[in-house]
Amino acid sequence: MDQQANPNYALAELDKQTMLHPVTSIAALEADGPQMFGKASGVRIAGPLGHDVIDFGAGLWCVNVGYGRQELADAAASAMRDLSYYHLFGGASNEPAVRLADEILTLFHEQAGAGHLSKVFFGTSGSDANDTAYKLVRYYNNLRGKPEKKKFLARAGAYHGLTYAAGGLTGIPAYHKAFDLPQEGVHHLTCPHHFRFADAGETEDNFCDRLIAELERTIEHEGAETIAAMIAEPIMGTGGVLIPPRRYLERVQALLRKNDILFIADEVITGFGRLGSWFGTGHYGLRPDIVTLAKGVTSAYFPLSATVISEDIFETLRDASAEHGPVMHGFTYSGHPVGCSVALENLALMKRENIVANAAEMGDHLLRRLREKAGDHPFVGDIRGEGLMAAVEFVADKAERRFFRLPQGAHRVVARHCLQQGVAMRPLPFIEVVSFSPPLSINPAEIDEGVDAFVRGLEAAT
Ligand code: PLP
């Protein structure tokens, strides 16, 4: 088609003239133009090549109930008419925020071992939820007379967002090396991805022992009295859908507890059903001191995040309150009544439609199909997943487990071909992986259609 006759041409030009895109190469954008996406419904979105595509990313791992749900649009419209906005500062409150805090705590309390989580702080993004956790941990330690406990542990390959503190915790250098994000006082441990980072012949259990020994050594070397917290995603998402070795997370948690180091579970992706359980922490039987949430809480129909803290942390804050004054942290949009109303309807809809159980079932189906259809491909090194969080990792040589050298980006080429074939896939930045995280409402026929398109894309690319 003549480029200028393309109805999106003018819009694409305007985009280039007016926007600075997040996590985008300016040179590539200027050369290729933006990819304009249009209307979406269910698991399909109008793609940039003039046809609908299945969204195997659910946006950025977030559109859990699928696109275009009337119930959520109605909830937003009705909330906007009732109370379009009010804040929570200085003790102000609103009904949707209270009800959502109660609903989130109830969901946690229904899972074993999470009865200690007791208060919810609202924000608007996964990054600010992690910044809130970072600040509250420091506040808590200052209040309980341990101001020297300041350091944070995280892992290489982790993604915790891109604001100042959260970006410093993120363990993918491409995201922070150009911005001088704070690395002092942040210690990134070895990435817990056996397939890629195990030594030759090292079993998963031995790999896990090595990681735990490293954590133990680090605590000893730095001094437990200087370490405030460790942050971890139950399954690392942007880092490559990295499923930790068996018992890794519970062993990490036990070591942290023994050393009076808080455990922050970053459930921005894994919260609200992605793993086929309501939360990743319940899925793995964990008992974190703080959980951070965003994305799926509203299925991304409204920007909303939550930082959930334990009763123990809250009690320390409360006991110091008379002496220290207000908790001087918060945002204009904390507890936004429209966002909280959308979240309440989203969670009700997930329950009505058994969406979490569907994620577990469809996750099994997706993995089976991927293994059947792509398992023998010479560049497919590993196919893994838990619930509807799955990945294909590419290797340059399967027998020798030789990896492509980034930024060669075989996975980027595959993703481009997939789009032509009818499925939107996400190539990840840390290793050669494309991720699969469709809406949790997806059905078997849609999975099959998406996997077939992925396989055609893979074949066209190789
Ligand atoms: N934490 C995790 C695990 C994430 O995957 C993300 C975003 O993808 C974030 C935090 C940051 O969330 P946001 O982009 O909403 O700031």
TrEMBL record:
MF GO annotations: adenosylmethionine-8-amino-7-oxononanoate transaminase activity; pyridoxal phosphate binding
Entry keywords, A to Z: Aminotransferase, Pyridoxal phosphate, Transferase
Entry-linked InterPro entries: Aminotrans_3, Aminotrans_3_PPA_site, PyrdxlP-dep_Trfase, PyrdxlP-dep_Trfase_major, PyrdxlP-dep_Trfase_small
GO biological process: biotin biosynthetic process; gamma-aminobutyric acid metabolic process
PROSITE patterns, alphabetized: AA_TRANSFER_CLASS_3
Cofactors required: pyridoxal 5'-phosphate
Superkingdom, taxonomy of origin: Bacteria
Family the entry assigns: Belongs to the class-III pyridoxal-phosphate-dependent aminotransferase family.
PANTHER family: ADENOSYLMETHIONINE-8-AMINO-7-OXONONANOATE AMINOTRANSFERASE
Entry protein name: Aminotransferase class III-fold pyridoxal phosphate-dependent enzyme
Record organism: Roseitalea porphyridii
